[in-house]
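Side project, low priority. Logging it here so it doesn't get lost.
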Amino acid sequence: MPDTDRNAALAMFADLQRQAAAAGVTLRQPPSEPDSCCGRGCNGCVWEGWYAAVDYWRDEALLKLAG
């Protein structure tokens, strides 16, 4: 899992949470980072699931912010 992808996801969480706070919108907590990766690049790695959860969280947050 490239750190740039992880860092971008964490920055996106912070940005959308700031926007939500400014707009008075409550967002659920972003998904927690996995802590059980073995580092072998497994098919179906826990990071793949995390990135899917990140995408879902972002889409939900954008919907709430839009309206």
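Brief comment: Residues 3-23 form the longest helix (21 residues).
Revisit when time allows.
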